[in-house]
Amino acid sequence: MQKILIIGSKGMLGQELVKTFKKDKDYKVIAWDKEDIDISKEKEVSKKIGFTKPNIIINAAAYNAVDKCEESKKEYEIAKKINGLAPGYLAASAKKNKAVLVHYSTDYVFNGEPEIPEPAGCSHSCASCSLHQGFQPEVGFDENAKPSPISNYGKSKLIGEKEVAKNTKSYYIIRLSKLFGKPAIGEGAKRSFFDVMLEAGKKNKEVHPVKSPQSGDAKGVFNRVKAVDEETSCFTYAPDLAKKTKEILDAKKPFGIYHIVNSGPCTWYEAAVELYRQAKIKTKIIPVDGNEFPRPAKRPFYSVLVNTKLNPMRSWKEALKEYLKSMNKEQ
């Protein structure tokens, strides 16, 4: 039996990891959250993990206030401790106890400007070249792409990746993007984009002039929301990510970096359109530029994660359908 320690067990991903591994009798699950361990304290990490002696450590804890750590030096320092130094402490403890470490990172370690692949044999002399005919490159960042974050949050996550690799060889760094799923437990828990947009679609009402043959100019009330039609990337459904994490561990895949996202890149606006279609919400969605909502932190314009090591996951639209069904069952 493998003893598996899941840190951040009350988070959006942590809950799904606990649920997934508890179904398998080959694993004994120990679930810790911030009241059980402060991963930013090196001595505490070493002592508690040394006492528990897990075979596998999964770190699903993270600082994710992207804008706060951009506008505040104090918050950035906190982000560097939790996202940057703490994974190194966990990696060192994993190595000392001969355990495997799983750590999660993000597409925000990239700058949003991927290299465009060329077909094999391309000499960049296109006068008579037919290699590009029918060639459809997969544009994005694969596991070997060079990180170059453009925000403090992205920088803090990249520090964490480097600290993990520096302190142990037995690690899996899993990059994900736009996580969604059942909200985390606890005060101040962050909700996913889909949860926020569902609430906005039902409550955000504006009054606008409407012409009616019977009454002439009148005022009608209808729902409408704005969504950014930029920042193309992929969504990751928490239950799918938890299952894929277990698949990597069960198969004893080679250590290193993995990209796990649901298939199908899209913008925030395109995601909102699909959400309202599936949820049968009649709200009007207005596509806007990213500068419509002033945000201190820069976001990558294009940060699609390309997976070259694992079987592809189902589309985010299928995963969203399942999520909406699960929400309806709980209501």
What does this structure look like?
This protein is of the alpha/beta class and 331 residues long. Helix 1 links the parallel strand 1 and strand 2 (27-32). The radius of gyration is 22 Å and the shape is globular. The protein has a six-stranded parallel β-sheet, with helices on both faces. The chain has a three-stranded mixed β-sheet with strand order 7-8-11. Strands 6-9 form a two-stranded parallel ribbon. It starts with a strand and ends with a helix. It has a single domain (2-119, 128-330), classed as NAD(P)-binding Rossmann-like Domain (Rossmann fold), CATH 3.40.50. It contains nine helices and eleven strands.
Question: Mind telling me the CATH class?
Answer: Alpha Beta
Q: Could you tell me the mean pLDDT?
A: 89
The domain tally reads 1
What spatial form do the alpha-carbon principal axes imply? Answer: globular
Taken as a percent bin, the fraction of beta residues is: 15-25%
| CATH fold category name | Rossmann fold
**Helical segment tally?**
9
Can you summarize the main beta sheet?
6 strands, parallel
- Whole-Å distance between the termini? 37 Å
The helix-and-strand class reads: alpha/beta
CATH superfamily, called what? Answer: NAD(P)-binding Rossmann-like Domain
Features of the shown structure:
331 residues, six-stranded parallel β-sheet, Rossmann fold, globular
Strand and helix layout:
Layout: E1 2-7, H1 12-22, E2 27-32, H2 42-52, E3 56-59, H3 68-71, H4 73-96, E4 100-106, H5 152-167, E5 171-176, E6 179-180, H6 193-203, E7 205-212, E8 216-228, E9 236-237, H7 238-251, E10 256-259, H8 268-279, E11 284-288, H9 316-330
Parallel strand pairs: 1-2, 1-3, 3-4, 4-5, 5-10, 6-9, 8-11
Antiparallel strand pairs: 7-8
Helix pairs in contact: 1-7, 2-4, 4-5, 6-8, 8-9
